[in-house]
């Protein structure tokens, strides 16, 4: 049976992994911007001018998801212990 400490550790590692993925995505989009825009515009049929705003929305939504589903439960469990 799991206890609060196990669940806290789980949410902590989920937060670390998801923040690492977010940093990786930001670095990848920053360093290889032209290449990624060309590939996505050809594959998805979206104009190159629309893609940067879509990338920004994706990263913003992902960050909000990390906050809501990983960090808030982790902090709440840390405060309970």
Name the descriptors.
membrane, mainly alpha, elongated, transmembrane helix, single chain, 81 residues
What do you see in this structure?
- The chain is built from three helices and no strands.
- It is mostly helical.
- Helix 1 runs antiparallel to helix 3.
- The protein is elongated and about 50 Å long.
- The two termini are about 15 Å apart.
- The model has no long low-confidence stretch (mean pLDDT about 95).
Topology:
Layout: H1 4-31, H2 33-44, H3 51-80
What's a quick, concise take on this entry?
The chain is 86% helix and 0% strand. It contains three helices and no strands. The mean pLDDT is 97.
For the largest beta-sheet, the strand count, sense and barrel status come to: none
Low-confidence segments, given as residue ranges, are: none
**Count of domain modules:** 1
How many β-strand stretches? 0
Give the fraction of residues assigned to helices.
Answer: over 70%
How many helices? The count is 3
Sketch the topology as an H/E string, one letter per element: HHH
The chain-level mean pLDDT equals 97
Protein name: DUF6868 domain-containing protein
Keywords: Membrane, Transmembrane, Transmembrane helix
Organism: Aliivibrio logei
Pfam families: DUF6868
